Amino acid sequence: MAKKDKLIPINVNSREAMEAVVNKLVELKLKHKALEVEMAQKVSDTQQAYQASMMTLATEIERHEIG
């Protein structure tokens, strides 16, 4: 039979342990929010670049149709 790993007992009621868990959750939440903001900015930048390229394309088409 395989030897099981022994877990180190932790007093889950200890204030320090609970604070550490809460602090980690807050840290992860902040990182998640930062990634959401970064992704939203990248989407916005991509949309603006797409719109600019469509405007350029439309201008080129008009110029060739007129000329």
Could you explain how this protein is built, in words?
- With about 70 residues, the protein is an all-alpha fold.
- It contains one helix and no strands.
- The longest helix has about 50 residues.
- The relative contact order is 0.05.
Put the structure in a nutshell.
The protein has one helix at 15-66. The chain is mostly helical.
List keywords for this structure.
67 residues; rod-shaped; mainly alpha
List the secondary-structure elements in sequence, H or E.
H
What is the number of E strands?
A: 0
Low-confidence stretches: none
Average pLDDT level: 87
Strand content: under 5%
N- to C-terminal separation? 85 Å
- Gross morphology is rod-shaped
> Class by helix and strand content?
mainly alpha
Largest sheet: none
Rg for CA atoms? 27 Å
* Helix proportion range: over 70%
Q: Helical element count? A: 1
